[in-house]
Amino acid sequence: MAVCDACAKSVLTYVALTDDGAERRCCVHCDAPVGAELKWVGLTELQDGGYVVGSPAAHKAGAGCGSGGCGSCGARKN
User: Fold this and answer.
1) Which pTM does this prediction carry?
2) CA-based angle 77:39:75, to the nearest 5?
3) Taking phi first (over 0 means left), then psi (-120 to 50 degrees means alpha), and beta for anything else, what does residue 64 get?
4) I want to staple 4 with a disulfide (CB 3.0 to 4.6 A). Which of 25, 27, 37, 69 is the partner?
C-alpha cells in the first residue's frame, strides 16, 4: 500500500509501464501515479484499510464491488 495524493488515502497500487518502458506505480482506484513509499501490509491491515478479502459469498449480498452498493471506491469502468 502507499498514499495516493489524488485519493488522499492509503491504497493498493499496481505497476504500469510508461511510453518509454519504465515502470511506475499507480493507484488501483484512480490510476494516478503514486510516488509515495510502499508499505507492505498483512491481511488484517489490508482489511482495516477497507479492502475485503475472501469469497464473494462471504460478503453482504448486494454490497460488493460492481454492485454500486458499497460506495467506498468508485470502481473503474475500463
Assistant:
1) 0.65
2) 10
3) beta
4) 27
